[in-house]
Amino acid sequence: MNLQSEKSDKKEPILDVAEKLFSELGYEGASTRIIAKEANVNMAMLNYYFGSKDGLYKAVLERRLGSFRQTLMNLNEEDISSWEKLRRCIDLYVDRVMNNNCFHRLMHHQLSLHQRSEISEYVIESLLKNVNEVKRTIQEGVDNGTFRKVDVEFTVASIFGTKFYIVNSSQIASKLIGKDLEDPKVLEEEIKPRLKLHLNDLLTAHLTKHN
After folding, report:
1. 137, 143, 159: which is closest to 82 by C-alpha?
2. What span, in angstroms and rounded, lies between the C-alpha atoms of 71 and 146?
3. pLDDT tens by residue, 86-127
């Protein structure tokens, strides 16, 4: 095993624990001492890898957002139809949201705070890069004549807004849908395919050109 792989192997468990605790306790509530204790590492190791609490939080975000951003960028470069890009984008997006819903709660908890901070700005800028890749997929379809002319920005907001309601208002959404959205099995087996179908139906109706 090379040095880079060894470092990665040690960092990943710390990031897993940090993501869970940041999600449960918020940025302010999850101290580095609590994270180090739960990850079974000493403070020196945590500081060596991440430098500070801010550095650890940013690493948690970038691990998830950076890999998904690259996936979306690669998809946008593929030589396939705009409809196929959009369908695959929705599939990838819903899979990510349902598989990592605690991570999405973590981000939106930070964004819900009234007082903006450097961390909040980092979350916004990181999320925006991913949102813009989804916007790019739709804008490209409009520009090449595949999709009808729509308000692209509000179309993107509709996609992310549906996710936000399911993940961040899960108690209300559970009563509306009649399913326990806190149950991972329900999310995986029932909500995920239903959400994919809904978003694809919604966007097909919205973007199809009418004669």
Report:
1. 137
2. 22
3. 999 999 989 887 776 666 666 766 666 655 678 778 888 888
Write the DSSP symbol of residue 189: I
Is 120 in a helix, a strand, or coil?
helix
155 near 134, Cβ under 8 Å? no
The three-point CA angle 126-99-23 to 5° equals: 60
Please tell me the distance from the alpha carbon of residue 154 to that of residue 134, in angstroms, as a whole number: 12
Signed CA dihedral, 191, 197, 199, 205: sign only:
negative
Convert the pLDDT of each residue in 43-62 to its tens digit. Answer: 999 999 999 999 999 998 88
Q: Give the three-state DSSP class for 96.
A: helix
Pair of tokens at residue 30:
């999850």
Torsion sign, CA atoms 120, 122, 128, 130: negative
Nearest CA to 127 out of 155, 154, 99, 164 is that of 164
E strands in 74-202: none
